[in-house]
Write a structure and sequence with these properties.
This protein is of the alpha+beta class. Helices cover 44% and strands 17% of the residues. It has 20 helices and 13 strands. The chain has helices at 14-24, 46-57, 60-64, 71-85, 90-94, 102-105, 114-127, 129-140, 209-219, 236-243, 259-269, 300-331, 340-354, 376-384, 402-410, 413-425, 437-460, 462-473, 486-494, 516-524; strands at 37-44, 145-155, 180-188, 193-200, 225-229, 251-256, 282-286, 289-298, 360-365, 369-374, 388-393, 497-503, 506-511. Strands 4-3-2-5-6-11-8-7 form an 8-stranded mixed beta sheet, sandwiched between helices. It has a 3-stranded antiparallel beta sheet with strand order 1-12-13. α4 (71-85) packs across α7 (114-127). The protein is elongated, with a radius of gyration of 32 Å.
Length: 540
């Protein structure tokens, strides 16, 4: 080979000569100068991108609107994903462009205005709520399917004088002195949320049932349903009303009896508490209506816990009444004895504190004597029913066995889990920073859609979670704690970043290479679960 000389390079450093040599060979070589490569910006990317991709894979974007690229739809997707990844207020989320790629992934480059991108989009979302819920019910519910329904409350702080839904009512959060709203949620048998409604804070549980059934049948077109509700929700009055609805033969129920209803049922049927068995489910039917089935169960752990609690409270009540009686008798020897009304008020306060008044018989005797005793018969009667519960249903035994009926009722824990996630565990629905009723409704609906996405997230990651559960259960050498939780998964994905890189005068964006854990999570989130979209329900 003939070599020719075309020129000579002199006065250059070795690094410069090596770079020229690499360029002539078609290679790229960075200068050793640290200033040659700079990272000028770093944004969270992994969790936001993965959840947005999942939202599109499950069709959530098209459920919001048939044209998912509309700006308000993309804004709602940003708020839904942001509720899972960041929680917090809409204002805080609108300012997340400084540390997150979420809004840019949804098409909003530059500053995000909370009024335009959040509040206005929430208003559009609320207008679409019925259409969205109809889409979800068509996807997840079929005739003859099981639907779960329960309600909860969420308390508010501050003044809401102009609100028609923020009111005082039965407080399920034990936040006395706070106004609240009531939230009714319908899910599939697997806990997938389908419909949600916000009721005034003074709404009674049972008063919402009939309208929910009508809504499922008329608005969503699900004629034949097995409606599962908590004890006290499907009352005798509601059962009568359900029987008057058109084509009511297609409405079946599963619920539980209250303590008073259990006592009345035993009296009508002539059975005794000894019929309850902790090892098997005993089934009896209503004497006057054989289609009504009762499944009698007993939980020994609940019985022990309830019995211990009652004994402790009765002992506190006994000590309190003995002190009141001694004080009353002592005061009667003074010049100004305590009145019977004052002593009665003290007794009432003591019984209200322990809630054991139904077990105490008392009266005032002349001379300031407080005469009281425990109702041993009442105590013994309640002790016999400790841990006992009764599941009622009108689904025939040919369609659903007694064990299945009890299991279907226990699946209400799926709705309770949804409420825990919505209110405290992961989505932090409150505090609510909205003052108008429509914005409150839109906020609740947005949080439920976030839980819908989170519910699918756990299904797509089921192989990982099931593998972890099996390792913890089989006594292997794995540590006796869960490594993978929803929080850990989100935090692991969040560490994948989108970097703005400046190199030799050229600026470009670069996604960091996923770690081994991130790669596994992302692979699972690209593999749809094998389970069917519509969970099977009992044939009607």
């Amino acid at each position: 080979m003939c070599h020719t000389t075309h020129g000579r390079l002199t006065g250059l450093a070795l690094d410069d000569l090596l770079m020229i040599q690499a360029a002539l060979r078609g290679e790229v070589m960075l200068k050793t100068d640290p200033g040659a490569l700079r990272i000028t910006n770093s944004l969270e990317y992994g969790a936001s991108a993965a959840l947005l991709r999942l939202a599109k894979d499950i069709g959530l974007d098209k459920a919001l609107y048939s044209r998912p690229h509309e700006p308000w739809v993309q804004d709602c997707l940003a708020m839904i994903v942001g509720r899972i990844v960041y929680q917090g207020s809409k204002l805080a989320l609108s300012q997340s462009t400084a540390y997150s790629a979420l809004w840019s992934l949804c098409g909003s480059e530059g500053p995000v205005d909370v009024n335009e991108h959040c509040y206005a989009s929430m208003d559009r979302l609320l207008e679409r709520q019925h259409a969205i819920e109809k889409h979800l019910s068509a996807k997840h519910l079929t005739n003859g399917t099981l639907v779960l329904y329960d309600i909860t409350s969420s308390y508010f702080e501050g003044e809401y004088e102009a609100s028609e839904i923020v009111m005082f009512g039965h407080d399920r959060d034990h936040k006395d002195g706070h106004e609240q709203i009531v939230i009714g949620l319908i899910t599939t048998a697997e806990g997938c949320p389908v419909c949600v409604e916000v009721f005034p804070g003074n709404t009674q549980d049972a008063s919402t049932v009939i309208e929910k059934v009508r809504e499922l049948r008329i608005r969503h077109g699900v004629e034949d349903i097995v409606f599962v509700g908590d004890r006290g929700m499907i009352t005798a009055s509601n059962e009568t009303k359900l029987g008057t609805l058109p084509a009511s033969d297609g409405i079946k129920i599963i619920s539980a009896l209250t303590h008073r209803e259990i006592v009345q049922m035993l009296e009508r049927s002539g059975n005794q508490p000894e019929l309850f068995d902790q090892t098997k489910i005993v089934e009896i039917t209503e004497p006057d209506d054989p289609s009504r089935r009762y499944c009698l169960c007993r939980n020994p752990h609940t019985a022990a816990r309830v019995g211990t609690t009652r004994n402790e409270l009765l002992e506190r009540t006994r000590r309190a009444l003995e002190r009141i009686a001694a004080t009353a008798l002592k005061s009667h020897t003074t010049k100004k004895p305590a009145s019977d009304e004052l002593i009665g008020a003290r007794v009432g306060a003591a019984l209200a504190k322990t809630r054991m008044g139904k077990y105490v018989i008392w009266q005032m005797q002349p001379g300031g004597v407080l005469d009281w005793r425990l109702d041993d018969g009442k105590i013994a009667g309640d002790q016999a029913l400790d841990g006992c519960y009764v599941i009622k249903t009108n689904v025939s035994a040919e369609v659903m066995t007694k064990n299945q009926a009890v299991a279907r009722y226990k699946s209400l824990s799926q709705v309770e889990q949804a409420f825990r996630n919505l209110k405290t565990v992961s989505l932090e629905m409150r505090p609510m920073h909205h003052k108008t009723d429509d914005r409150i409704r839109a906020h609740v609906f947005l949080c439920v859609l976030a839980y819908y996405l989170q519910w699918h997230l756990t299904r797509w990651l089921a192989p990982l979670l099931d593998e972890q559960r099996d390792k913890l259960a089989d006594g292997s050498k794995e540590p006796k704690h869960r490594r993978w939780t929803l929080t850990n998964i989100i935090e692991t994905l969040k560490t994948q970043r989108r970097e703005t890189v400046s190199l030799c005068g050229t600026t470009f964006d670069q996604i960091t290479e996923p770690t081994a854990d991130q790669a596994r999570l992302l692979k699972l989130l690209q593999t749809p679960p094998e389970t069917t979209e519509k969970p099977p329900g009992p044939a009607m």
